[in-house]
Amino acid sequence: MTDPTPVDPAKDAAARAAVALVENGMKLGLGTGSTAKIFVDRLAERVHAEGMDLRLASTSKATADQARALGLVVEELDDLGWLDLTIDGADEVDPDLNLIKGGGAAHLREKIVATASDRMVVVADGGKVVDMLGKFKLPVEVIPFGWESTRTHIERVLTDLGMEGRPVVLRQKDGKPVITDEANYILDLALEEIHDAPRLARALNAIAGVVEHGLFLNICQLAIIGRPDGTVVELLREDIE
Ligand SMILES: O=C(CO)[C@H](O)[C@H](O)COP(=O)(O)O
Asked: Does the keyword Ion transport apply (predicted)?
C-alpha cells in the first residue's frame, strides 16, 4: 500500500539532491525522521533503477524497517566498520553547521553513525536554519535508573551556565515515557538560546546518567536546504572555516 501522506516539496528537494551524492559501492548511514524517510524512499528508487551496490547501516529501527520494506539490505554498523557518508535530518542548523538533533528520539544512534562516517550531510527544509541553536528543545537521552536525580544534575548544570529555571521535561507519549531504541528516556531542555554550545555539551556529557545529548558540534560537513519551489541551497563547512 502506498503512503497517502503528501510529500513536502522542500524536504523532497533536499532528499533528491542528497541521493545524487551517493556513489556505487559506498557504505552509507541512513538517518531518522521525516526528511531522512523521504531520502530513503528516493534512494531505494535509484538503487533499483540503476542496480546500485551499497552497504547500509541505519540510525533507528524505524528507518531499518522502512529500508527493508523497500527491498534494501540493512546491516549492523559493526559489520560495515567505517562509513563513507551518512545522510540525516536535523531539528536546527546554525550558521556554523552545528545542529540540534533528537526530535525523533534517535540522536544517540544518529551521533554514533554520523561520527563513524567520513562525511555527514544534513537534509532539511528552510525552517530548520537558525541564527542560534536553542529554540528547539534540546533532547538529552538518559538512563531510566535515577532519571529524576539526573534531571536535578542537569538543572544544576543549567544554573551554573546562567540558564537557571529552564524547564527540563521528560518526553512522554500517551502518558508514558518515550523509550528510545536503546531503552532509555529522553529529557527535553527548553533553553531558548544556547550561547556556548561546546561548554553545555561538555557539562552534560560529564553527568553519569546522561547517555548523549542532541548537540552535534563540528560533525556535519554539508547541509542541503530544500525550498518549496524544489530548488536547494547548499551550506558547506569549508565555506565557514
Ligand atoms: O534528529 C532526528 C531524529 O532523532 C531527526 O533527524 C530530526 O528530528 C529531523 O526530523 P524531520 O526531518 O522529521 O524534521
From this structure: no
Q: Is the CB of 33 under 6 A from ligand 1?
A: yes
Query: Do 198 and 158 meet the contact criterion of CB atoms below 8 Å apart?
Result: no
Is 76 an annotated catalytic residue? no
> Does the annotation list 146 as a binding residue?
no
CA distances from 167 to 61, 159, 207 (A): 29, 11, 18
C-alpha cell at 167: 524547564
Question: CA neighbours within 13 Å on the CB side: how many for 73?
Answer: 9
How many angstroms does the Cα of residue 105 sit away from the middle of ligand 1? 8
Question: 143-157 burial, b if ≥16 CB within 10 A, otherwise e?
Answer: eeeebeebbebbbeb
Is 231 annotated to bind a ligand? Reply is: no
Catalytic residue among 23, 50, 110, 212: 110
Q: What is the pTM of this model?
A: 0.96
User: So what's the ipTM on this one?
Assistant: 0.98
Decide if pLDDT at 1 tops 50.
no
Residue with cell 529554540: 135
